[in-house]
Amino acid sequence: MIAKDLKKGIAIKWKNDVCIVMETTHRTPGNLRAFVQATLRSLSNGRSFDERFASTADVETINVSHEKWDFSYQDQNGYNFMEPNTYDNLTLNDQIIGAAKSYLTENQQVTVVFVEGKAVAIELPPVVELKITNSAEGIRGDSANNVQKPAMLETGLTVQVPLFIKEGETIRVDTRDGKYLSRA
User: Fold this and answer.
1) Neighbours of 143 (CB within 10 A)
2) DSSP H or E stretch at residue 126
3) CATH number assigned to the domain comprising residue 84
4) pTM of this prediction?
């Protein structure tokens, strides 16, 4: 594949590492040669970086597949998932799960990303519903604009919620930025 055909989500081999293309921009400055500016995320260390390719440069692509798996439970070996059709099991470690562990609940469906048959990452749905396990009571009459309080969720994550939200309620949380969206 040539660099000008790179698209978001493609896996490539770059500098002895496997990287996922996060974003691309094709540029043609004045009287210079065209190039592709790409943001890549390394699968070995999880870091993102920008790379510039000549638009006609050859890039080696790697097979990537996305499969739906159900999160079952966590134990000392890691996070255990089950494929809903074949009932195959998969255990992933903390490095692969990363910050997603703050949003995982039993029987939740996630997308597992496989590169050349090896699980390398998980993708959460954009919004999850989580139950509040600990939250201070709002003070009656404290109704200034958008006053919020911290609330501990069932996964251990703490988010800021409006004062009217009570312990035991289920709320919707954005998995991209970890912010409260609404009651469930």
Assistant:
1) 11
2) none
3) 2.40.50.140
4) 0.71
